[in-house]
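Onboarding guide, step 5: your first structure request.
Type a short instruction followed by the sequence, for example:

Predict the 3D structure of this protein.
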Amino acid sequence: MACCVLQIAGLIFGGAGMVGALAATAMPQWRVSAYVDGNIVVFETIWEGLWMDCISQLGIRLQCKFYDSVLALPPPLEAFRALMCVAVCLSVLSFLAAIVGVKYSQRGKRGPRGASVFILAAGVAFLLTGTLVLIPVSWTGAAIVRDFYDPAVPVPLKRELGAALYVGWGSSALLLAAGAVYCRCWC
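The system replies with structure tokens like these:
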């Protein structure tokens, strides 16, 4: 009975982590313009994401522009895009494997061996997905903090941590928790 509750909790964690990984991939708020001058009147807010840049003027008008060329992007951004897309696809597959594993373990008559394979596959896939989400989010966060405190970077180019990074860290934690729960249930 305890393992059943753990499997349902892992399914909830994995589902929430999957949605969070998808949201973090699509959100344009990875890097947000920083206001470090003494000027409190701000007319524009700049958001930079994996897929587009957006400018919000006075909180009323929002203009977003997708990146024109894939070849013109910096190599880290291309790698982060790829990692996040692979993580989203893998999270969907691991969530489906978790559903199948929970379904077969509830029946119990189809054989515990088949259910344990799906539970183990879901656990390992969730752990891998959480790691794949954590890498680009943490790397981007570290680069933002490094550039923010670098005196060589001009003030208009300084950025702060965006909401997508926090969503990515949260979804990574949920995916890693789901993977740990399913690996624990398999043992």
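Each response can be followed by summary notes, for example: The chain has a mean pLDDT of 86.
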